[in-house]
Task: inverse folding
């Protein structure tokens, strides 16, 4: 089941239909249907009627009240991927857009809704890249698709060469490695109502067995990915640099309709020779970034943050044995 709920008036879901083929489950999927908010079938799109030599696979990526985008993968001698845009109302296949980029090998990073557009964010690699490692990223691109028509309306690029006046890259044409620092990696990308964007970049030292967290750089871009402003949130000198990167950046949350957001990441700091686990809460209000910290651990318990309704964060407290003790909603200071 691939399900995506919209607003109360035009809710819908996309569900797969299965045939009786045994073995490969992807081959067994021979269509998908759109359901209304009462789970009644509105229409069905059929495929994989003959899977002897090849078969198709569809994955729901994003949607609006008018359209939704599926990643189509054709499994044959050569793997072919496209972005397929469908009408929610009648199932018309409005557009088929090549996946990726002819100049680079690509890996899907994220998808944002930006006003009338979907913004598809790709990580860029050398054309013949096979491993798609973080340290091999050459930059990122933004493919914009009109939400109503499904047509491509623009594509912009952000390479490390474009940022070399802001960061001291060793060889920006080859990687995002910064001299005597580490690599710059995109953790989040926000499309603002104004048409501008915020990129959340983590400075991280990539080692064989782990990534060492450095700093966060909040980069504000215009609609063409030109840099407007960079706000750095540096680690304090007493930071424990052995902290695992996979426990740093958590999520972002839209606070209201005024292009105001909050970002959450975790860190560990040394206090009185002890590691103290903290949550860094960064707010973007009135075009300005500010931060506060919330302690997540003490000798008796540990708190796990989770996404909640706008303007709040859900905190789940566990004791040393991992037993749930308390959960509570905390209002974010604005």
Result:
């Amino acid at each position: 089941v691939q399900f995506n709920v919209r607003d109360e008036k035009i809710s819908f879901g996309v569900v797969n239909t299965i045939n009786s083929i045994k073995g490969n489950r992807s081959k067994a999927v021979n269509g998908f249907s759109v359901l209304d908010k009462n789970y009644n079938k509105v229409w069905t799109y059929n495929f994989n009627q003959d899977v002897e030599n090849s078969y198709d696979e569809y994955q729901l990526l994003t949607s609006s009240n008018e359209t939704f985008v599926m990643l189509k993968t054709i499994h044959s001698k050569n793997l072919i991927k496209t972005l397929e845009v469908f009408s929610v109302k009648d199932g018309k296949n409005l557009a088929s857009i090549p996946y990726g980029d002819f100049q680079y090998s690509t890996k899907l990073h994220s998808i944002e809704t930006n006003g009338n557009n979907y913004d598809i964010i790709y990580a860029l690699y050398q054309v013949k890249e096979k491993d798609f490692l973080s340290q091999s990223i050459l930059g990122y691109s933004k493919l914009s698709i009109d939400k109503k028509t499904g047509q491509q309306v623009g594509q912009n690029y952000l390479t490390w060469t474009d940022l070399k006046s802001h960061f001291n890259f060793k060889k920006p044409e080859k990687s995002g490695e910064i001299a005597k620092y580490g690599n710059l990696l995109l953790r989040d990308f926000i499309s603002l109502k104004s048409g501008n964007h915020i990129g959340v970049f983590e400075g991280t030292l990539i080692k064989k067995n782990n990534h060492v967290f450095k700093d966060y750089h909040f980069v504000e871009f215009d609609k063409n990915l030109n840099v407007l402003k960079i706000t750095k949130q540096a680690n304090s000198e007493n930071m424990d640099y052995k902290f695992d990167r996979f426990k740093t950046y958590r999520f972002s949350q839209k606070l209201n309709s005024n292009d105001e957001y909050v970002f959450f990441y975790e860190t560990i700091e040394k206090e009185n020779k002890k590691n103290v686990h903290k949550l860094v809460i960064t707010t973007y209000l009135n075009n300005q970034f500010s931060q506060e910290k919330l302690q997540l651990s003490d000798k008796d318990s540990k708190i796990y943050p989770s996404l909640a309704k706008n303007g709040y964060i859900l905190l789940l407290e566990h004791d040393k044995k991992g037993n749930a003790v308390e959960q509570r909603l905390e209002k974010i200071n604005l």
About this structure: DSSP finds one helix and 23 strands in the chain.
